Amino acid sequence: MRRVFDEMLGSAPLPDDVRTRTIELGGVPAVEVRAGAAPPAGTALYFHGGAYAMGSAAASVGLVSEIARRAAATVLSVDYRLAPEHPFPAAVDDALAACRALLDGGVPAGSVAVTGESAGGGLALALLLAIRDAGLPQPSSATVLSPWADLTQSGGTMSTRAEADPALTRRALQIRAADYLAGADPRTPLASPLHADLRGLPPLLIQAGAREILLDDALRLAARAARADILVTLQTFPGAPHVFQGFAPLVEEAARALDHVAAFLNSHIHPEG
């Protein structure tokens, strides 16, 4: 499944202006992605999707490079450990280690943004909570695309969008959640950030497609963030499926969504920290 998933995501050739190199952040593998000729104005930590069991930094370069080009940013896609071999909280530990390495290396928190898609969106949110709980400075902002933020699968659109969603099913997510949790409570905040106290988190952009079963994760997350006094922007896209932004080279609406992502990141990043 992992091989097929990675081959599917990485099947499209990358534009000639995309530059990548393999690095380590606090002992965690990552891929540094740059695109375009503009000098980078900031750094984004990126967390790929794959239900915590599939996906990789290398396979995510296509989508990541689209963000890097539009935002004129260096994007670091983190190869966090995957379940079931490495269940919760291994992915959160890796995310925090990568972020600590950036800060310890002298990168100002204000010049860093956090982003992720699907399970990686949930992990991005968990990282913000872990940063807060560790007493570290928060990054400038966070962007989550079709976030999987509730491993209890309790959103109403799990049922109402079941026939419309071409990518996900409740049963598949239940299997992957069990693999990742390995017996942990699915309401644990670092596993399901929707159930966390979100106070103290940075500005948040949430995007979701109207045809996905995870739509309610995005809607409820936005409401919870607003109640926690967070600056939150919610964007939903009619007719769009899960992580439709990955089709930006082909679909105008996906390209526009990533333009919004870049504008949001750039409006909050402070290159000097």
Write the layout of secondary structure elements.
Layout: H1 2-9, E1 18-25, E2 28-35, E3 43-47, H2 61-71, E4 74-78, H3 90-104, E5 112-117, H4 119-133, E6 141-145, H5 157-160, H6 170-181, E7 204-209, H7 215-227, E8 232-237, H8 252-268
Parallel strand pairs: 3-4, 3-5, 5-6, 6-7, 7-8
Antiparallel strand pairs: 1-2, 2-4
Helix pairs in contact: 2-8, 3-4
Overview of this protein structure:
With 273 residues, the chain is α/β, with parallel strands linked by helices. Helices cover 35% and strands 18% of the residues. It contains eight helices and eight strands. The protein has helices spanning 2-9, 61-71, 90-104, 119-133, 157-160, 170-181, 215-227, 252-268, and strands at 18-25, 28-35, 43-47, 74-78, 112-117, 141-145, 204-209, 232-237. The chain has an eight-stranded mixed β-sheet with strand order 1-2-4-3-5-6-7-8, sandwiched between helices. β3, α2 and β4 (74-78) form a beta-alpha-beta unit. α2 (61-71) crosses α8 and α3 packs across α4. The model has no long low-confidence stretch (mean pLDDT 95).
